[in-house]
Design goal:
mainly alpha; hydrolase; dGTPase activity; Deoxyguanosinetriphosphate triphosphohydrolase (DGTPase); about 55% helix; about 0% strand; about 425 residues
């Protein structure tokens, strides 16, 4: 381990080099009491973008149920799982933690519902995607550090931490070559954020993600597949008794493939659902008692341990011992584990997510998001009275309506569910 000119410690003995710890904007020297990655994590913990996740929906609308998760509680659970798996594989836990803490920062109000509304509005200016918005927040919108020319560098994370947060390393224009599933187009970079993207990807294989990002992606999958089922059972949306009906099981399989892609083998997916059901990995009934809640919590722990253990075993079998960092390896997820995770997602789709899309407030949420963007753009090029001061400089520096539309989208995407609804009631 050595100390760089800026006073931050470099973890050379743990699989990282000085280039991994470079920052986009130069910063004055600091005390060497913390590593660069520890500073990265602290910046995210103290960010306003992270705090706002407490008011953004996960599956159920934020604030409608005291038990169900918000984006913030989901993020903290992803970070805990990520640190656990990262430690098993020899990644720096703070780099993985940064990726996990950042992974949902770009989500707009009303979850994927709001995301689809903004994507339709932004289709001609590079699109909208929560992951691309995350990169924009980290490198531009969240106030912390500025470049010498006066432009914001966001929280100015190290290259390793920022790279770990970019789940889909391509633009909307390039996304067709990297399909994720049938439901939506995933990408991680807007056209005007490409300069920092090219900086963070220096020396990296094209269209690839580092180990720490792969651990984050897996931890996200594990967290929402397991915890969404926990929420659904605890709130009565999913009655475990229903899974005893093989017709319901068949519908779960079909829902998963309709939602996540036809590339998933239906027979393997059915086998995974039956393993979870018949192997007593899911509760047979739930009555809301303290004992039932404890059983439900133990179910989540057992499933997380099952998935993490299988990944550690398979990855270590391929790559051996020692730190597995950055682009030195790939996370190995056994097919059985991948299908079991998807089986849980399919249950969430069938019992929670698909029915929710048919509810009346689904269209109302999209209308709120669309109306707010319209209000902000109504007097362009003059800034709207509703434009927040923090976005005013961005608006003034914009040279055309396309650039001003991106500023309006940035503001609406930053809102919580509650603040979006309140602002809409005032303005519209």
């Amino acid at each position: 381990m050595t100390t760089t000119a800026d006073g931050e410690r470099v973890l050379t003995t743990e699989g990282y080099c000085a280039a991994d710890e470079e920052r986009w904007a130069p910063e004055p020297p600091k005390s060497p009491s913390r590593t660069a990655f520890q500073r990265d994590r602290a910046r995210l913990i103290h960010s306003s973008a992270l705090r706002r996740l407490g008011g953004k929906s996960q599956i159920l609308v934020a604030g409608t149920d005291d038990f169900a998760r918000t984006r913030l509680t989901h993020t903290l659970e992803v970070a805990q799982i990520g640190r656990q798996i990262g430690a098993l594989l020899g990644c720096d836990p703070d780099v993985v933690d940064c990726a996990c803490l950042a992974h949902d920062l770009g989500h707009p109000p009303f979850g994927h519902n709001g995301e689809r509304a903004l994507a339709a509005i932004a289709k001609d200016i590079g699109g909208f995607e929560g992951n691309a918005q995350t990169l924009r927040l980290l490198t531009r919108l969240e106030p912390k550090i500025f470049l010498p020319d006066g432009r914001s560098a966001g929280v100015n994370l190290t290259r390793a931490a920022l790279d770990a947060a970019v789940k889909y390393p391509w633009t909307l224009r390039e996304a067709a070559a990297h399909p994720k599933g049938e439901r939506s187009v995933k990408f991680g970079v807007y056209p005007d954020d490409e300069p920092v993207f090219h900086w963070l990807k220096q020396g990296a294989p094209e269209a690839s993600t580092p180990m720490e990002c792969q651990v984050m992606d897996l931890s996200d999958d594990i967290a929402y597949s397991v915890h969404d089922i926990e929420d659904a059972i605890a709130t009565g949306t999913l009655n475990p008794v229903a899974l005893a009906d093989n017709r319901i099981v068949d519908r779960v399989v079909e829902s998963a493939r309709a939602w996540y892609g036809r590339q998933w083998d239906p027979d393997l997916l059915l086998a995974a659902v039956l393993r979870l059901r018949d192997g007593q990995l899911l509760p047979g009934r739930f009555d809301g008692s303290r004992q039932a809640l404890a059983q439900l919590k133990n179910m989540t722990s057992a499933l997380i341990g099952r998935f993490a253990g299988s990944v550690e075993s398979a990855t270590r079998q391929r790559y051996g011992t020692g730190p597995l960092t950055r682009y030195a390896a790939h996370v190995v997820v056994p097919d059985r584990t991948r299908y079991e995770i998807l089986a849980l997602k399919g249950m969430s789709v069938y019992f929670v997510m698909a029915p929710r899309e048919r509810e009346p407030f689904h269209e109302q949420e999209q209308r709120i998001v669309t109306d707010l963007v319209d209000v902000l753009m109504a007097d362009s090029p003059r800034p709207s009275d509703a434009l927040e001061t923090v976005f005013l400089d961005d608006w003034r520096q914009a040279s055309n309506d396309d650039e001003r539309l991106r500023v309006a989208i940035d503001q609406v995407a930053s809102l919580t569910d509650g603040s979006a609804a309140t602002l809409h009631s005032i303005l519209c």
